[in-house]
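Q: What would this complex look like in 3D?
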Amino acid sequence: MSNLSEDIKELVIFRLESLHSNKKISIGSHGEFSKEELIEHVRKGDDIGKKIADIEMEFLRALKEGIVS
Amino acid sequence: MTELLITRPEHDDTTHYLSNWSKEIIDIAENKNIKVFDINREKAIKKNVELRLNKMSCDLTFFNGHGDFNVIGGHNNEPLIIGGENEGLLKSKIVYAISCKSAKELGPKSVKAGAISYTGFDDDFIFVYEPEKISRPLNDNTAKLFLEPSQLFMKSLIKGNSVREGVDKTKKLLADNFLKALNDNDRDSAKYLWWDLKHFVSHGDVDAKLQ
Amino acid sequence: MTLKDKFLNIYANLPLALRKETIIVSDKEPLTWNAVYVEVFNNTKKSEKILKRLEELRII
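A: Here is my prediction, written as structure tokens for the whole assembly.
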């Protein structure tokens, strides 16, 4: 995972804002996170932040292949 | 008699959810006269798992817990099965592991060492849940979108279907739940359901079924 | 196929719920699929910059 550019960080943070505050996400080996915790990790650009950004970008890129089939 | 070994550590939110959601598998298996070895909570340690796998024939193994590319974890993430060390214990078994990433490396290694098949996730298994439901995880309808499919593979095998049929049923339910989440405007669940669907894989003999 | 065509093809195939998702931050402004569609449909100057960046990000 390469370093996150600032515009990708901003994009991912805006996308994460839509998560309900009453929900958490279990990300396998990394642990469980609230919306605020995920956003903080993305801001820091650490391993978890990069993982979250990777998932967001992979999903966005998959949309061009037609995600519903 | 068919035997099932199931590990159910329960040391954090994730394993607590996995453990509770997989309890039903034990009931279904016992109703089908399958002998179940339930290694749960602090008993889910390497010594106990190795002892059981060495001693019994265990046709089917179901690992819940964290993991990594080459590892299945147990209580407090103690490694239970480690690629290059003891994956040979999985010889002649149909293996299902909800242990993140383990299907990437440990899966193929296990099959090479004689496991009939190894099904699981080749990257992180992700699910969304409602923390206020932590004391009643089976009532968590958000987590249900993810955990019901994760259990369906085992239910399918126990009912006599092949690994391939179990994988197909699981993928279909994940895909259906993805569409349901989109319809309910639950875009976050949809995104992570798509992720889990993409990373649910199987190695080895996919036509295998319980005898 | 032009970038505009690529975008419009992808947009047409998107589930309605996903069209409200942010896909780019341009000049500090978050833009959803729908917001970008309006720019692209109207062939605005901004849309050229947006489409170029979407291509760089491999979103289109």
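A: To summarize the key features: The mean pLDDT of chain B is 96. Chain B has seven helices and ten strands.
Q: Very helpful, thank you.
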